[in-house]
């Protein structure tokens, strides 16, 4: 309760005077929340004022032609929100007599009203003790309590929701929820939080441990993909073979050794049984270095595991299937190759193998 009391006092003294805060109408709170999902407060305020002026009540909005709603929404983008706004207004009028449901669960069933917006309406308009967790709240809680669980993981979301419920002032959820969000928006900023003037600094774990710049933790949306490249450094009478990469994949226009890409790491025996092997060598029986050198190469969205096999052949494979350029070994350096191949060749040089 201590945190809640401090935050509420700070909020009552420092909150911004925003038009929807002068109202406890569920219609106004719903409208502001939907608009603020699309834009920042400054621009959102203009849209909010225009909507309220044109459609003073949910019934006015429900009775308006869809085109007019879209026109008023113009510039906010993501027009599905505007269509949902209109549809929900009609539902509130047709199914609920123009009065918004009071309970969080009922509100969350309305189109375009997720659990967050439902909690905002239920707590601010109707005083239901339900905690609100948005980006600002994740940030404040993770720093204040030193929570390192990723805010974008299902487990992390549960942890933050529980913490938010635990510190909720159940007597004044309206003030409490708005205070927490406003504090995140004005003081506990994503970059450069104003810890020097923060009323919670003495309680804040991240501040005490110097971790404000590492919290909150995100798992990250960008997943890296693992790829397994098996390169064949084929040697025949002082020559080797290269291929020019074309198309939309990585390394467009660079040269590389004949490549067999596999879904997983493979050993030499598996490699020789793959259809691509037969395409490259036909009936030729190559002699290979069975112990490939493997290099890990990191790209932005891909981790490449590149295995290089040295392969000797006694006669050239059937030219029909063998589509690679024949290159004298001493001329290899003239070709632009990816860094990982360059590294492999440099290692061979250093060891006197090439
Ligand atoms: S001390 Fe800094 S990091 Fe901690 S809650 Fe306050 S502003 Fe946020």
Characterization of the model:
- The chain is an alpha+beta fold.
- It has three domains: 11-128, Endonuclease III, domain 1, CATH 1.10.340.30; 131-221, Helix-hairpin-Helix base-excision DNA repair enzymes (C-terminal) (Endonuclease Iii, domain 2), CATH 1.10.1670; 225-350, Nucleoside Triphosphate Pyrophosphohydrolase.
- 44% of the residues lie in helices and 13% in strands.
- It has helices at 2-14, 26-36, 41-54, 58-63, 66-73, 79-96, 104-107, 115-126, 135-145, 154-167, 173-186, 205-209, 268-272, 275-281, 339-350, and strands spanning 225-235, 239-244, 255-256, 259-262, 287-288, 293-298, 302-312, 325-328.
- Helix 1 (2-14) packs across helix 11 and helix 5 (66-73) crosses helix 6.
- The longest helix has 18 residues, at 79-96.
- The model has no long low-confidence stretch (mean pLDDT 91).
- Iron/sulfur cluster binds next to helix 9 and helix 12.
- Iron/sulfur cluster binds at residues 140, 143-144, 187-188, 193-195, 198, 200-201, 204, 206-207, 212.
